[in-house]
Amino acid sequence: MANNETLLIIEQLSKSFGKLIAVDGISFHIRRGSCVGLLGPNGAGKTTTVEMLEGIKQPSGGTILYKGNPLDADFRQEAGIMFQSTALPDFITAYETLKMFRDLYPRSIPIEQLVEACSLQEFLDRDAKRLSGGQRQRLLLAIALINDPEIVFLDEPTTGLDPQARRNFWKLIREIGERGKTVVLTTHYMEEAYELCDEILIMDHGKIIAEGTPDSLLAKHFNDVVVQLPADDLPEHFDARDMDIFRANGSVEIVTSDVNAAIEMLMSNHVSLKRLKVRQRTLEDLFLELTGKELRDES
Amino acid sequence: MSPKRLLAVFIARNKEFLRDRSALAWNILFPVLIVGGFAIAFSGESMDVYKVALYQDKGSEQVAGQEFLNTEYIQFIETDDLDHEITNVERHQVDMLLDRNTQRYWVNTTSPKGYMLERVLKGTIGNSFKRQEVTGGEIRYVDWLLPGVIGMNMMFSALFGVGYVLVRYRKNGVLKRLKATPLSAVEFLTAQVASRMLLIMAVVVVVYFGTDIFVDFAMFGSYFNLFLIFALGAISLVSLGLLIASRTASEEFAGGMLNVISWPMMFLSGVWFSLEGTAPWVQKLALIFPLTHVTSAARAIMIDGASLSQLSGHIIALLAMTAVFLLLGAVTFKWE
What we know:
The complex is a heterodimer.
Chain A: E1 6-17, E2 20-31, E3 35-39, H1 46-53, E4 61-66, H2 73-78, E5 79-82, H3 94-103, H4 111-117, H5 133-145, E6 151-155, H6 163-178, E7 182-187, H7 190-196, E8 199-204, E9 207-212, H8 214-221, E10 225-230, E11 244-248, E12 251-256, H9 259-268, E13 277-280, H10 283-291
Parallel strand pairs in A: 3-7, 3-8, 5-6, 6-7
Antiparallel strand pairs in A: 1-2, 1-4, 8-9, 10-12, 10-13, 11-12
Chain B: H1 3-19, H2 21-41, E1 50-55, H3 66-69, E2 74-79, H4 82-90, E3 96-99, E4 104-108, H5 112-125, E5 130-134, H6 141-172, H7 174-179, H8 185-215, H9 223-244, H10 251-268, H11 280-286, H12 290-304, H13 312-332
Helix pairs in contact in B: 1-8, 2-6, 2-8, 6-8, 6-9, 6-10, 6-12, 8-9, 9-12, 9-13, 12-13
């Protein structure tokens, strides 16, 4: 049974399009005030899942309960939505767009407050089609927040943004969380999930293949680290002493739970350690391990 | 139905259209250029044929004015409808009307040809016929064409303006975003219809009076009736645009559909030429197009001064089409 802290209960949710099963009987809970990240490669079922939670797509099976009730008109008032790719009407300024969306809701927060919260000041009078990628996403976020929602759905909010704009956007999302809102986020940037989410669901082929807090997921799946060297620094053939060696993007990675042994192995092969790096395993590695796919693999 | 939500979408849509300068300019310039072009093309007088209508009892041996009838280079046309022929004199369709029964003649005081004929008449038979004056401008091709061109412009604006915009919004996700708000489909569609109606009717008024300054159209009916007919036509065409765009997210498909509907409609609804000479089945077929009813009714008002009751058939047809298109469009509408 749901306790007071559980906002959304998802049971056996599924969605198929003809023969294709996009979402395959997934179940999870979303706690009030948490930030939940849905991670997965393209086609994993993230967007379909989120759009069912938003009430935009009808599930083929299973139930979604919001505060114990099926999704209804009240939910629409309490949900803020930012779709993956939304155009805005042409020839309308950012401010006018906000005004239009404000008038569509019975209850809304003052536009000035949103302008402040989403840093829209510099382009309020600009035509929506003249906005940069980051500005557009900020405006779309403001639209998602205009009805003062309790739960905010963000579907790949930072895809296509440059690293600077992405980091600025993370700050905005964090502030939403600080105001006590529940955030459901899909992304294929591991770093984003790690930075923002309290809870992560990793999806592939319509199923949840791992879930937990970012750190617990890493601790559960990895007890090793990665020793990294530029490929140029290693001879073509050397004695690897049964260690796992991976070559990728001009570097060589040795995955090991014993760093000392790895370094000893390298020294015995007369490899220079000047450019050696040791890093912790990341969600990216976890993802690769679980799905065998690169996260940003566009295929 | 929430007026606040409806108004929000209506206002945004109006701004969008008004700021899209190229589309707006095209909407106004296109009909002005066509009307202007035809006004200039048909302004030169062609053959100088003098036409006189003759009214007399059938079979009677009228001799009155016989000497005038012997004049060469005048085409005499016998008629048995005096009132109709007076109207023709008013519109310069004939240059003079001669009633041999009552020994009267009609000339149009603004017609140079009428003036010349009057001099000939007096020169041949003196003052035995009594002068009747009428006034009125010529009915030119451009007068006949204007209602058709306005209707056609309205059709393109309604079908493509509503159809394409909806399909584009569906394709790029604007509709999906609106669906996620409390806005209902009926509110959204009503706002689209209202916005497009406002703009079409504004363009109709601007184009009509704008070209009237230069071309000085014949207008024998009521401006109110004319406005009403154009408004009914506009709403039926806007509804048709909604129906075509109610489901598809493919601009290519919608474009194809719009062309398939608009081009036959333009040629078969008598915009450019009268359907009177065409096969009866063509004339029957043309009645399925809203534009046929708009063009015919507007011409009847402008050229014949028809009243609304005389046009009830067209009005009922336009209302019925609007109801069917709107209903089907609303029922089949999809946000995504």
